[in-house]
Write a structure and sequence with these properties.
The complex is a heterodimer of chains A (about 250) and B (about 240). Chain A has one domain: P-loop containing nucleotide triphosphate hydrolases (Rossmann fold). Chain A contains 8 helices and 5 strands, in the order βαβααβααβααβα. Chain A has a 5-stranded parallel β-sheet, with helices on both faces. The longest helix of chain A is centred in the middle third of the chain and has 25 residues. Chain A is globular. Chain A starts with about 25 loop residues before the first strand and ends in a 22-residue tail after the last helix. Chain B has about 240 residues and is an alpha/beta fold. Chain B has one domain: Rossmann fold (3-Layer(aba) Sandwich), CATH 3.40.50.300. A 5-stranded parallel β-sheet of chain B has the order 2-3-1-4-5, sandwiched between helices. The longest helix of chain B has 25 residues. Chain B is globular. The interface between A and B is large, with 43 and 41 residues.
């Protein structure tokens, strides 16, 4: 079947009609290190317990370009436009290969980050917003976005508790501070401000990520339950978390 | 990425503010555009211009990924389009734009119009692709080498052993064999190029004429354009 001008609608991916999409798309957003994966590992088995098949997709996990992005970030090959475009490629690849087929077959897709993360990273790098919005115009809108929020002071202690500071997660490519600590604080604060603004604008469900893992999980389930028609009195179920989140996609 | 003020200028439609000059050639495979650009390059070299040559889909950044994607048939029209845009942005910000700012003459074998034509044929939304390349400077001279399919096919089959899979649009499943697919695919690309000629004011060149006559025409157009660009640098002759 050959795509033609007539079947390609504005903004849409070729060969994808929104009406065909029967599944639900649930997005978890938030800065690096707020605990998204920990929560997803608990959320997925819970959804599956209620008889719904789940596919998880995460940032930079596409078969096509994830290795390229990882290796390019080790050096100084990327400028902000190629950085943006490679992430858009990763996103489009996952969308066409994983997300849309799953949604079409009526599955639940849990996305560890989505368009908002791209918009935030672009915004803190002064990439033109209209350009980016149009670039990501092909993405189907989520049925629910849960925003896991931490202040930058909590974020840095939690990050250091778990690991060490990372060049890119500290925005060192943006030369935002004297040292990596200052850069991290200023880069992540800027990101949090951007996420906050979007959360307000788009009416996301904001969850306070300072709380214990199980409490946060309950908050997230409360938001997810109505979207998937799961009874609200079932949000406290304790289940074994998943050990590996996603295999390589494709 | 251009600032908001620059954005308002709409780089693809308004003259760029840089001292250098940008000459691009476009046309389907087998139109003879690369030959013409090579000859123009010799001519401008001899005149002492500082030149920067750049070619579509040549950046090291995405080379391996593109190769792997094509080989394993992993590319969709959208990711195909995005990877080409990444290749272009890489060359644009590291080669084309610095050279224009340095007052050089940039010679580009294919430019954004190639994406506009090919991606549209693959079913990608034309408006979306135009936005994708919105940051690119408008060429000072954009030459479109117009040739009928049969002529380009003759050239390609006599000069090369085989026509490449994507060049023939075989990924679209238009026809069972490469030659038929090439005819259909490149025929549609021609139609999209015609749209670009009207939309962006590309200069059409009859690519069926003798190479030498075409080249004279090309040189005359280039010289006329360069005469109006006093800031373009020449290098000291050794």
């Amino acid at each position: 079947m050959t795509p033609t001008r007539a079947t390609s609608r504005k903004r849409g991916l070729p060969r994808v009609e929104r009406e065909e999409v029967k599944g639900k798309l649930i997005v978890l957003e938030g800065t690096d290190g707020v605990g998204r994966s920990t929560q997803i590992a608990r959320l997925v088995p819970w959804i599956e317990t209620h008889g719904l098949p789940v596919v998880v997709t995460g940032w930079n996990r596409s078969l096509l370009v994830s290795k390229l992005i990882t290796s390019a970030k080790e050096g100084t090959l990327l400028n902000k436009v190629t950085y943006t475009l490679l992430y858009a490629t990763d996103f489009a690849d996952r969308l066409e290969r994983v997300v849309i087929p799953a949604l079409k077959s009526g599955m639940v897709v849990v996305a560890d980050r989505y368009v908002a993360t791209a918009m935030v990273r672009g915004a803190v790098r002064d990439v033109d917003r209209d350009w980016m919005r149009e670039l990501y115009g092909f993405a189907p809108p989520p049925d629910l976005t849960v925003y896991m929020r931490l202040d930058v002071d909590d974020l840095i202690t939690r990050t250091l508790d778990r690991t060490r500071l990372n060049y890119w997660e500290s925005g060192m490519d943006r030369h935002m501070g004297e040292d990596i600590h200052d850069s991290f604080m200023s880069y992540q604060s800027k990101q949090i401000r951007e996420y906050d603004e979007m959360a307000k604008e788009a009416g996301w469900k904001t969850v306070d990520a300072r709380r214990a893992v199980d409490e946060t999980q309950v908050e997230i389930r409360k938001a997810v339950a109505p979207v998937l028609q799961i009874p609200l009195d079932r949000v406290h179920e304790r289940l074994q978390p998943m050990t590996t989140l996603v295999d390589e996609e494709g | 990425m251009p600032t908001a003020a620059q954005q308002a200028l709409n780089p693809l439609h308004d003259a760029h503010p840089y001292p250098g000059a940008l000459i691009v050639v476009e046309g389907i495979d087998g139109s003879g555009k690369s030959t013409q650009l090579k000859l123009l390059r010799r001519h401008l070299e001899a005149q002492g211009y500082a030149l920067k040559f750049t070619e579509w889909n040549s950046s090291e950044l995405v080379k391996d990924t593109m190769k792997m994607g094509k080989k394993k048939n992993l590319l969709t029209p959208t990711t195909f389009s995005l990877l080409h845009a990444t290749d272009f942005a890489d060359r644009y910000y590291y080669e084309i734009l610095p050279a224009l700012k340095a007052g050089m003459v940039v010679l580009a074998d294919r430019y954004v119009y190639t994406a506009f034509a090919r991606d549209a044929v693959r079913g990608v939304d034309p408006g979306w692709v135009r936005n994708l390349y919105r940051f690119a400077a408008k060429p000072d001279l954009a030459l479109y080498f117009k040739v009928p399919i049969e002529v380009s096919l003759d050239r390609l089959t006599s000069a090369r052993a085989n026509i490449k899979f994507h060049e023939a649009g075989m990924d679209l499943g238009l026809a069972a064999n490469v030659i038929d697919s090439f005819r259909i695919f490149q025929g549609r690309v021609l139609e999209e190029y015609d749209r670009c000629v009207a939309e962006f004011g590309l200069q059409s060149i009859d690519a069926q004429g003798p190479i030498r006559e075409q080249q004279e025409h090309v040189r005359a157009l280039a010289e006329k354009m360069l005469a109006a660009k006093p800031a373009v640098r020449k290098v000291v002759k050794k």
